[in-house]
Amino acid sequence: MTGRIETRLKDLGISLPAPPAPVASYVPTVKTGNLVFVSGQIPAAADGLKYVGIVGQDLSVEDGKAAARLCAINLLAQAKAACDGDLDRVTRCVKLSVFVNAVPGFTQHPEIANGASDLMVEVFGDAGKHARAAVGSGSLPRNVSVEVEAVFEIA
């Protein structure tokens, strides 16, 4: 039986990838109590990294927003694995932290972060509304444009 969230993802045309393995000394998720902390996810796809470069120099705001959305898709893949394959266990997206690799003086971090935030609301409805930080970064791993981490509440 397909769950409510899986059906919603299908309706949105989203197929979750296999969650990527960590590339350094950390774990992709930590469950404590009824919370799942998902380590920062970058805009990686099956065929490699996407949206590599600096927003405002190499990439547009729209590219950054698309990168944040792809990061959020990877967050969902990690959350699904942490929930034993059942995203219906997610009762709330609690918080997103969005890091943007941008030129000095860049001010549109919130617009880029909306790529991830909007997806959470599209997928979870009101339970996708969350607290958020959107911050600029002088660089990010592998020179990607965006990295996003999350905290989910689960049943």
From TrEMBL:
Pfam families: YjgF_endoribonc. SUPFAM superfamilies: YjgF-like. It comes from Rhizomicrobium electricum. Residues 6-144 form the Endoribonuclease L-PSP/chorismate mutase-like domain. This is RidA family protein. PANTHER family: ENDORIBONUCLEASE L-PSP_CHORISMATE MUTASE-LIKE DOMAIN-CONTAINING PROTEIN, ENDORIBONUCLEASE-RELATED. It comes from the Bacteria.
